[in-house]
Amino acid sequence: MGLVDRSVESPRWSRLQIAVAFGALCLIWGLAFVVMHVGLLYAPPITFTALRAFLGSVALAAYLLATGRSFPLDRPTQITAIVMGATNVAGFWGFQSLALLRITPGETAILIYVQPLLVAFGAWLFLGEQLPFPRVIGLFGGFAGVVLVIGGQVLQHAHLSWIGYGSALAGALCWAIGTVYFKGRAHGQSLLWIAALQALYGSIPLVVIAALLEHPHVAPTFALFWTLAYAGLGAAALAYLLWFSLLRQHDASTVAAFVFLVPLVAVIGDGIFLGDRFGLNAFLGGALIVLGIWLVSRPYPNLHKNEEPTFVHVTSRQ
Q1: Is the pLDDT confidence value at 140 over 90?
Q2: Element (H or E) spanning 208, and its range?
Q3: Is residue 16 part of a domain?
Q4: Residue 251 has what pLDDT?
Q5: In 3-state terms, what secondary structure has residue 204?
Q6: Is residue 262 part of a domain?
Q7: 71, part of any domain
Q8: Nearest to 101 by CA among 41, 28, 162
Q9: Separation between Cα atoms, residue 179 and residue 295, nearest integer Å
Q10: How many folded domains does the chain comprise?
Q11: Residue 179 belongs to what domain range?
Q12: Which of 3-7, 44-48, 133-137 has the highest average model confidence (pLDDT)?
């Protein structure tokens, strides 16, 4: 993958190490939806998101400086980090927290993960990337899944939270915009530094919004501390170290294709830890979305071999 920072080569992992890393990554990102749902009981959503972003950025920056990666001062890296901070952190994470306040973690994860479908369409529309027939089928199937998920809830609940579902889809759209922008950038910057800086820069508008609208107050409880630690240090910092380590071991398209398991983990975790249950429509819709993600994320031989995958993850998948 041309955009991966290979300034520090890592030794090849065994198949067992790679499998464990894949499993840990999907587990961390999937359960993050459940954990943040709990954390939002103790802090307003934008305040929680700002604290999470700042904590994750500090942890990643500390790791990079400790391992000898100098702070990037070049203009392209800074511009990329600012734009990604606005879309993938302030937008994506902010809307994700608003969704988790009103709908279940499983539903939030399913709808958030239509992002690869939006990226595939956006990359075809704005970047001229090819859209082979299986990807077209994946797009239609994935969006049909969204209709099933929301439509099933409309039939079951008269008090459907349109704000919650709209926030989840808005988060997916922000994430997709940031990813398409990133895919169109010609650079070889350090992805780890961009991940750290976008979280830092994205926390700034979140702090301003929280100060203006939420008048931040938090309950300094153990539950708040451990959920923030999980969201900031686990789902943001540690998960990103795993993500980029895997990118050094495998082609990006191979790594990306496995992350469609994240919403499945979120739905299972939601059911086990929070007791939420979904109707048949929600399960069928989720299955269509997962299938659509797989179809648009998998590599196709007829595409240019250097084409970036449609499911590049440059912020926390959660």
Answers
A1: no
A2: helix 191-209
A3: no
A4: 57
A5: helix
A6: yes
A7: yes
A8: 41
A9: 18
A10: 1
A11: 28-297
A12: 44-48
Residue type, 49: T
Indicate the DSSP class of residue 237: I
Q: Which amino acid is at 238?
A: L
> How far is residue 147's CA from residue 51's CA, in Å, rounded to a whole number?
33
pLDDT at 317 > cutoff 80: no
Does 157 fall in a domain? yes
DSSP annotation of 303: S
Question: Residue 85, Cβ neighbours under 10 Å: how many?
Answer: 26
The two structure tokens encoding residue 287: 């299955």
CB-CB contact of 226 with 220 (8 Å): no
**Cβ proximity of 57 and 203 under 8 Å:** yes
Confirm if 137 and 295 have CB atoms less than 8 A apart: yes
Summarize pLDDT for 263-316 with one digit per residue, the tens: 888 888 988 999 877 677 777 888 888 888 888 777 776 655 444 444 444 444
pLDDT digits (tens, 9 = 90+) for 114-131: 888 888 888 888 888 888
Q: Are 48 and 228 a contacting pair, CB within 8 Å? A: yes
Residues 6+ apart with CB under 8 A from 176: 115, 118, 119, 122
Q: Which is more confidently placed, 28 or 15?
A: 28
Q: Rounded to whole angstroms, how far apart are CA atoms 307 and 312?
A: 11
Number of CB atoms found within 10 A of residue 192's CB? 22
Q: How much is the average pLDDT of 51-67? A: 95
